[in-house]
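Dear colleagues,

As part of the handover before I leave the project, I'm documenting each prediction I ran so the next person doesn't have to rerun anything. This entry is a single chain, and its sequence is reproduced below.
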Amino acid sequence: MGILSDFEDRVAAGIEGVFAGAFRSPVQPAELAKALGKAMDDGRVVGVGKVYAPVSFTVALSPDDDAKLGAFKGTLGGELATFLIDHARERRYELSTRPAVSFVTHDDLRLGRFRVSAALAETTDEVAEAPTPGRRQTAITDIATVTVDDMNHDVALRGDQIIIGRLSDAQIRLSDANVSRRHAAFRRLDDGWAIEDLDSTNGTRLNGKPVTRARLHDGDIVEIGVTRLVYHDPRG
């Protein structure tokens, strides 16, 4: 981990050096690079003889930070994509295509705060800052995400279920003695997601109330042990 950590620090420092002085936003490139690298690590999937990494990344900024970054977003996105290629190469991850980093604004974020999410494949025909006339655009933010306490990035919900617990193979692993090995799961519905308790010892709470299974809505707060997980529905 020392070599990989030094490698990430050098790349992050290089990115920061390119833009230092030009940025008026408290969100710095090094912070984004580290968060995206962590999102790539957390989003990897083990296949037969290969480890596949996400290639589609979204950075959510506050409206103020978005305005302050301004025209640098395009250049920064390219630099972050290059960082992610090196990050994947160092860890021997398999990439289906060149990583793409896009930026969106979330009104609930304050100045200096950001969220990142990752997906294994693009959900757009082309990632761009503005729609191209005559070309279909599907927003990459159509992926539901969860903000987890003590993580510096969001977890993208994909597949049919996301297991939460203390087991090492849980998609959302929580190191909390109050959390069962397989505590709860996010379950995909036809038009959204639900939270389901997996017969845990201490139970699962939704917006402060015990729950066995319930459909989730944007902004819902799931409590597992001492950890809060906030659900974000891309449709609001």
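The helical segments are 2-19, 29-42, 63-69, 72-91. Residues 122-141 have pLDDT under 50 and may be disordered.

All the best with the project,
I.
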